[in-house]
Amino acid sequence: PFCNLLFIVNFNMPALKSLLALLMVMVIVSHASNCTNNVRVDGYSCYPGYCAADGPKKPPPTCGPELAEEKLGGDTPQERVDNAKTWCDTNSSCNGFAIDFDFPVTLFFSTKNISAAAQPNEQWNAFWKGPPQPLPPGPTPSPSPSPWQPFLPKGPCAHDEDCSLNGVCNSSGVCNCFASWKGTRYRKKFAVCQQDDVSLYVILTSALKFKFAGHNCQYLALGPVNSSSFGGYGVTPNISSWGGSIYTEKLPSNNTLYHLYVTEETDGKGLASWITNSQIIHAVSSTPDGPYTKRDVVSTPPTTNPQILYDASSKTFLLFHIRGAGSFQLFTSNSTNGPWIPTPFGLGGCNNPTAAFHPNGTLYVMCHDSQFSLYAFNPKQGMPAWKAKPNAPIPTLMVGHNRNVPGNCEDPFIYLDRFARFHVLAHCYTCYWYPAPQRPSGEQDRQASGSCLPGSSYCSGHGFSYTGEAGNWTWIGGGDAPYGFTANNSDGSVRSFSTRERPWGLLGGEHGDDFIALINGVSPPQPIYAKFIKGRDWTYTNIQRVEHDPVDRS
After folding, report:
1. Which one has a higher pLDDT value, 41 or 73?
2. How far apart are CA 151 and CA 146, in angstroms?
3. What is the DSSP string of 131-144?
4. Which is nearest to 352 in space by CA: 404, 298, 409?
5. What values do phi and psi take at 87, rounded to 5?
6. pTM score
7. CA nearest to 347, candidates 390, 295, 383
8. Would you say residue 352 has pLDDT above 60?
9. Spatial separation of the C-alpha atoms in residues 295 and 305, rounded to whole Å
10. Distance between CA atoms of residues 262 and 504, nearest Å
């Protein structure tokens, strides 16, 4: 009654230590086991040792005892299946096996009665010798050559949210990712239950049903960084730059010119002097990842963090940015070359603004505050949206369901995909200085705690929503973070960043929502937390191309 059991393993089984290492769940009860009844446990497999008294009584199993557990190895799921088939074919008592690709152990069974042995389950893949047999309610097996018949579980997605809204969940339960995204990952959800007559059990509950967890299509398919341009801007000439955004111009010659609007530090200063020495400059390149050549100064100090956006309805370029330490300002122009005119806007204290147009003409502006507030500006007759007054702010990053990304989040970049669904990339960081065995002491945010070593440090997060409304947002990060602290160079070497912030995406492709390149403000590797230490505070703008799947399967 205490737990609707799905899967149970006795501690005396030889393979439990490996299972415990993966599950990281233990419950030790001092009472000796007096379990004598073997009953079928709901799952793909039958297990001996489950006490009838521990739950609702069930008839004795027809499947018989588990035949064997073997750690056969295999670098891919298919190799593990092939190895298991070979093992089973060479053992006359074996008639089937079950594999969970997160577990190193394959379970073998002598039963020929799949109806008695197998129950619907979304994690274990079961295979049984012989012709197909009547199955319990659940997934339908796919045809396969005799003598092996797979009993296939449901795929890792049930809806598009499982695909991070970076793709669509097809009818087979598989995510078809947009061209610039990749990733398939799931984790078991499990709980621990205990009874006095159980010596040691690891129990997975049917309430959680072995659901696929994590998200798919969660990683940007980042390509190599152009080694010749060393990132994009801030190296040649040798000057500190930070972040940046790009407008793509199609020239009459059918060539493309890329316009970069980026923060540049004046007077040879580094990022430590950003409040007083930052200015916005305009640079151009014939390729999205540079190198970029400075063309003109858009705005003198103190202005920083520019995000360019074009309003097709009014044929106006909008340059959102901040002045000084966080005062919002909007520039407008009819040309990429200016002049840039300070323009009244309906928001005052909006720090690090980011903006995108909805297909219906509504302008959405997000501010970096404690909840990543989102404001909607609706166009009116004869007046563009950016001249309207905003609606009430919408909180998008909140404690709970909307705030399950680790670390502290800042620097949002908002865009809408081909289905007008909302996305935000952000600098969600768990450390300030990578790599480092411990985070630096001092005035750092308390949320950025722990080590800054590979595998335990993150610098990005992704929020997404069908509607953009409050309570409709999901945020992912940590192991599902869209990018990390390193990048591959085109010459085969690996580039590490002490910090990687200010994300912005150059979008394009057939649907206008595929990432062409990812832009960040970065610090090179440093032995200390150097971003704000004068003399060590050199930073630059890294621009990394995103590779595309040649077939957009969405």
Report:
1. 73
2. 13
3. S-----SSPPPPP-
4. 409
5. -60, -45
6. 0.69
7. 390
8. yes
9. 18
10. 11
